[in-house]
Structures are given as C-alpha cells and as structure tokens.
Design goal:
By secondary structure, the protein is α/β, with parallel strands linked by helices. Helix content is 47%, strand content 13%. The chain has a six-stranded parallel sheet, with helices on both faces. A two-stranded antiparallel ribbon has the order 5-6. Strands 9-10 form a two-stranded parallel sheet. α7 links the parallel β9 and β10.
Length: 292
C-alpha cells in the first residue's frame, strides 16, 4: 500500500515511521532541512524510539516537499500539520489542514484523507459538507512529547472517526485502524470506531482531563506549602487509592507543552451555551499557578 503523510512533526514522523515498516510511505513537509535529515535517517528532534527506528530499522520511507507528485498514487493521505489555538478567534487555526485537503483534491487524487491534526469539535463533519468529499476520516493521537513513537508502538487505544454508513468507507476506516495496529508492537489494542465529532471530542476531553489532574495536584502542592505540610506524604497517601492511581501526580509550575493549553481552551470554547464550570476552572487554575 502507498501512503502520504503531510507534516513532519512528532505526529507525522511517528505515523510515517510506523507505517513505513510495512508500506511505501512519502513524508511531506515544506521545511527542506527536515526533509534532508529524514532522508539521511537523522531525527529532526529528540525522541529515543524515533532516532532508533530511523537509523536502525529497514523503512520504506521517502521524505519530499512536493505532495502533488504522489497524491494520485497513494491510498491514504494522513494530515498532521500544526493547528495552533488562535486566542483572538477562540478557535484552532485549521488553515493548514484545509490547504492540504485542497491540494490533494486539486491534484486529482481519490485517496482517503485521514486528519490527525487536532481540530475543533464538528470540524471534520463541516469540512465534508463544505467540499462534498466524503472520504475524510478523523483519527486522534495520544502521545507524550519526547516519547511519541513509543506511544505509537504501544498505543492505549486506536480510534477512527467516520461519518459515512457506506460499506466502502467503513471498510476504509477499518483498514486504516489495521495499518496502525500492524505497525505496533503491542497486541490486543482496543480499537474503537465512532463518528468524527465523537473522535474529535475524545481527543479534547482526554487532554482536558489530564490538565485537570495536573491542576488538582498543583493546588494540593500550594495548600501543603502554605500550611507547612509535606506535599510528597499527602500525594503518596492519597494515590494508594486504586481509583486515583499514581500517574500525573507530580506538582509543577502549571501544565504546558503544545497540546494541553490549546486543547483545554478549544474545548471550553466548544461549549458555547452549554453550562460548564469545571473546564473554565481548569484554565483559570493553570493561570493562577503560573502567576504564583
């Protein structure tokens, strides 16, 4: 099978390497330096497993800058371009995704398009209605920065969103999930098929929960510090409860990175007139912690 992956960041490069173990993959990016490094089997950023697989594993991987040269020949186009949060519009900047979709269709491709970039809730459904092209799926990713490819090799779950009930498109979604499973080391991976809007929601709610958990332990730490208590003793004790567990419990200066701040804000804006208190509180708690 032939696959194009657009965007050579953590998401795109991880997907490309995973799939290139068994299939012919073209990784497309506009930054020539990235393209050159990947073709030399040098990772453009620090990630142990990416570095190991690029330099030491046989991969059918070619990095290029011209997507139109391959779009007509591939079965899938995976979009993993950046979608930064625009605070003025209170919305993700999805222009890079739209440019890729436009390029794919203008090149005469009939490939299935899989959006991996994080997008607002209902974005994929609205995009399909706008352009009249049904072969668009949404598949969220869940990884840790610096361990991205490890989390692709050992995924907690695979989720593919598809809005069509047509057998060929449902089969297309199942085949894509199979491609991700095929490249992983972990077996018995939970695979879930949903509507695209549900898949988009899963990504935003999952990251917002992680942000909430971080915020909780940050506020615990502030309370302990102000009262002369041991943060470690309190956290160790409450995390022995199996319902709470011992993950994401290290106090910090607030959650940061690329995904959690923008995903929590986007989810908050998605509520519109729907009542909510908790998500707003998570955003405010992080702002307070950083200001202390």
């Amino acid at each position: 099978m032939k696959i194009a992956v657009v965007g050579a960041g953590y998401v795109g490069l991880s997907n490309a390497i995973l799939l290139a173990q068994h299939h012919e993959v073209y990784l497309i990016d506009i930054i020539q330096d990235k393209i050159d490094k990947i073709n030399q089997r040098i990772s453009p950023f620090a990630d142990k497993e990416i570095e190991e697989y690029l330099s030491g594993h046989p991969l059918q991987l070619t990095a290029i800058t011209d997507g139109c040269s391959v779009y007509k020949a591939v079965d899938y186009v995976i979009i993993s371009t950046p979608t930064n949060y625009d605070s003025k519009k209170d919305y993700f900047d999805t222009s890079s995704v739209e440019r890729v979709v436009s390029d794919v269709l203008s090149c005469g491709s009939n490939a299935a398009i899989v959006i991996k970039s994080t997008v607002p809730v209902a974005y994929t459904r609205e995009l399909i209605a706008k352009i009249g092209y049904e072969k668009i799926l949404f598949s969220p990713e869940f990884f840790r920065e610096g361990r991205a490819f490890y989390d692709y090799l050992y995924p907690s779950r695979i989720i593919v969103g598809c809005d069509s009930e047509q057998p060929d498109l449902l089969n297309c979604a199942k085949k894509f999930a199979g491609l991700l499973s095929e490249g992983a080391i972990k077996t018995d991976i939970p695979v879930l098929f949903t509507k695209t809007t549900e898949a988009e929601s899963i990504k935003l709610f999952a990251n917002t929960y992680l942000a909430l958990r971080i915020s909780f332990f940050n506020e615990l730490d502030t309370f302990a510090e102000m009262n002369g208590l041991s943060t470690k003793n309190i956290i160790d004790a409450i995390c022995h409860d199996p319902r709470i567990g011992k993950h994401y419990n290290n106090p910090s200066f607030g959650y940061g990175g690329y995904c959690l701040p923008k995903d929590t804000k986007q989810l908050k804006s998605s509520f519109h007139d729907i009542p909510e208190n908790l998500i707003t509180a998570v955003c405010q708690a992080n702002h307070t912690k950083k200001a202390i």
